[in-house]
Amino acid sequence: MTICMPDTREILTILGAIIGDKKLIRPSGEPWDLGKAAVGTHVTYLCDADDEKLGAVVTDLVATVYLGGKLVMMPDAAMADKVRARHVDETMLEALEEVVNMTRSVFNGVAGNVHLHATPPSPLEKPRPDGGDVWLLEPAERLDLGGECSFGALRIAMLFR
Question: Global pTM?
């Protein structure tokens, strides 16, 4: 099953509405090498009705904290403390999952795409060519996003098999 990526503007519009800043997150000029993703990187899989992983939203530590923190209206200083401590709590992960759920509505709206649901975010295990979600390294469709918030640069990769 092939999933088509929606127009980038639609993704940016919904993310901007969620975080309350329509200019912070932008397409990144350079693809993020997920084989070298740092500790604190999380993946939220997008699955079909049979729970087959067809896509993924990968967030680095800053993006995980920022997206989840903005949804629960956490002050920037508290989010910065979480990033410095490299600590992502359950509330933040649940909020990140909700952000992905809201964003996936754009994917589900593309004609011909199957309905997708999100899994809870989990730490990204580095994809390896010899097994385990190797498709994340070379997806059929990909959108890399980035931005700079008050406590650091953030990265997001949206991937489809």
Answer: 0.94
